[in-house]
Design goal:
The protein is an alpha/beta fold. Helix content is about 35%, strand content about 15%. It has an eight-stranded mixed beta sheet with strand order 1-2-4-3-5-8-6-7, with helices on both faces.
């Protein structure tokens, strides 16, 4: 999939449009209205490219401070883009759409959902080799509820997955020295101290796949670093803080694609997590690299 300069600007515009539609506090209780509007938006956008299905989530938030859990609607929204080789095991690509209370969640995680929606359009127009299941997860901020439900449904039905990709915060980049931190000191001696790259974090089953994905991202102009972890990342808890972790636990190959969240972005979980803090040009390059990898692998 070769994206020309004019098409790149189209990607920037589409990402911007999705970010504008999704940004705003999307906690299902303290931001219930925006949360519900985001569900409608995601369903409508995915519905342009296939039949959208929902997966209801069984979750009751304990009542506190006079707030009642009843009436909240929790669901994953998903669409399948058929591949040209039906017998190949599929990709599963997911991004969560809920936020913590009070945060506009532009980077966390409207950025991931915006990329997910653009990938749905690109893959529908340029058919991939493998089928791609695209899923917008709910309740990530309440303990990975949406992705855990999804992962164990796939496992209990014994469905294969070629690779799960979790799109977790894809919009914040910095060229400032020492703008990048790491959960272990040893990693700071191996990886850059500037937060100008996209990171891939995968379990040992994904090493060759991460190398291929890194190559596609670099070809699209998106600098990339990758980190394989053992034992489902339990020695480095920061590597488990997104929707890939339940797929690791279910025995699937899974990779988190991320700008590294709180290890880089000073607006993490803050009201200041707004669109104007994001580098949408770089997001478009990341989208191009992901689309090329998903189409050809």
């Amino acid at each position: 999939m070769e994206i020309q300069p004019r098409q790149h600007q189209d990607l920037v515009q589409k990402l911007t449009s999705h970010l504008e539609a999704l940004s705003g506090p999307r906690d299902p209780y303290l931001g219930a209205g925006t949360h519900r509007l985001s569900q409608h938006y995601i369903r409508a956008e995915l519905g342009q490219w296939g039949d959208v299905s929902s997966q209801a989530l069984d979750f009751q938030r304990p009542a506190r401070q006079g707030l009642n859990s009843s009436g909240a609607h929790h669901a994953n929204w998903q669409v399948l883009i058929p591949g040209s080789h039906a017998r190949l095991s599929p990709f599963l690509v997911g991004a969560h759409y809920d936020t913590v209370p009070g945060s506009s969640g532009a980077d966390d995680n409207a950025s991931g959902v915006a990329v997910l929606l653009v990938l749905a359009e690109l893959l529908a127009k340029y058919q991939p080799r493998r089928s791609v299941q695209l899923v917008a997860f709910d309740l990530e901020e309440y303990g990975l509820v949406g992705s855990t439900t999804c992962a164990w449904q796939w496992r209990t039905q014994n469905q294969p997955i070629y690779l799960m990709l979790s799109l977790e915060m894809l919009g914040y980049f910095s060229d400032e020295p020492h703008s990048q931190r790491y959960p272990l000191d040893v990693l700071s001696r191996i990886y850059p101290d500037t937060g100008s790259f996209i990171a891939l974090v995968g379990n040992t089953k994904t090493v060759l796949k991460m190398r291929s994905l890194k190559r596609h991202l670099k070809q699209a102009g998106a600098p990339c670093e990758w980190l394989p972890v053992i034992n489902q990342g339990k020695q480095i808890p920061d590597t488990r803080r997104s929707d890939h972790a339940p797929f690791w636990d279910a025995g699937y190959p899974a990779v988190m694609v991320t700008d590294t969240a709180h290890l880089r972005n000073p607006h993490y979980h803050q009201a200041s997590d707004r669109i104007e803090t994001l580098n949408i040009e770089t997001m478009a390059k990341v989208t191009r690299g992901l689309a090329a990898y998903l189409q050809t692998s």
